[in-house]
From TrEMBL:
Cellular component terms per the entry's GO annotation: cell envelope
Major localisation: other
This protein's record includes keyword Transcription: no
Lipoprotein among keywords: no
Any one of the GO BP annotations: cytochrome complex assembly
Domain Thioredoxin: 50-194
UniProt keyword list: Cytochrome c-type biogenesis, Disulfide bond, Redox-active center
A Pfam cross-reference name: Redoxin
Source species: freshwater metagenome
Location within or outside the cell: Cell envelope
Name of the molecule in the record: Unannotated protein
């Protein structure tokens, strides 16, 4: 009897490991629920019509450089809010894109704000990231991820990086999951920038 159990232990372990792997390969529907307009999956972009938009959460704090920042003070401008982390490879990939579009659109009334997902990061690493990638727009350090959680009510973030575009009234107008390239980012900004009200 003892030999029988000894032979079954590796088989049972293999079956458990296989079950875990297969559980991770399952598919789910893309939508969490009909009211959230949240689509799971990397690379998705959601654009909202003006009558579908909700106010962005309150974002008040201090930038990595020590300056005060309040999203409300940016009303009247289109604002790009990018959630990133210094350890995030896709964040490094999109850093030059964000900086380039910021340089192109800032004079047209577009502001950029970075929010560092601080749960697994540090202020020192975030500052080093902004120096390494020449990020000239302000970033805030979200030590407890409260800002990430606050955006869930408007249009959920689902990982890092996530980019939001806010309209001139401070409402969430667009969201992109994953790293953005120039055409994708401009495709989010231009329609909102072109709105007259």
């Amino acid at each position: 009897m003892r030999h029988y159990h000894a032979r079954l232990a590796p088989v049972a372990g293999l079956i458990c490991a296989l079950a875990l792997v297969l559980a991770g390969c399952g598919t789910t529907s893309g939508s969490v629920d009909g009211s959230s307009r949240y689509v799971a999956g990397d690379g998705s972009t959601v654009l909202l019509a003006p009558d579908e938009r909700t106010a962005a959460p309150t974002v008040v704090g201090t930038t990595l450089d020590g300056a005060p920042l309040d999203l409300v003070s940016m009303r009247g401008k289109v604002v790009v809010v990018n959630f990133w982390a210094s350890w995030c490879s896709p964040c490094r990939e999109e850093a030059a894109t964000l900086e380039k579009v910021y340089g192109q659109k800032h004079s047209a009334g577009v502001e950029f704000v970075g929010i560092v997902s601080g749960a697994k990061d540090s202020i020192e690493n975030a500052r080093a990231f902004t120096r390494r990638f020449d990020v000239s727009y302000p970033s805030m350090f979200d030590a407890d991820n409260s800002l990430v959680l606050a955006f869930r009510g408007a249009l959920p973030a689902a990982g890092i990086p996530t980019t939001f575009v806010l309209d001139r009234q401070g409402r969430v107008a667009a969201r992109a999951l994953g790293a953005v390239d120039i055409s994708r980012l401009l495709g989010m900004i231009e329609p909102v920038l072109g709105e007259t009200s």
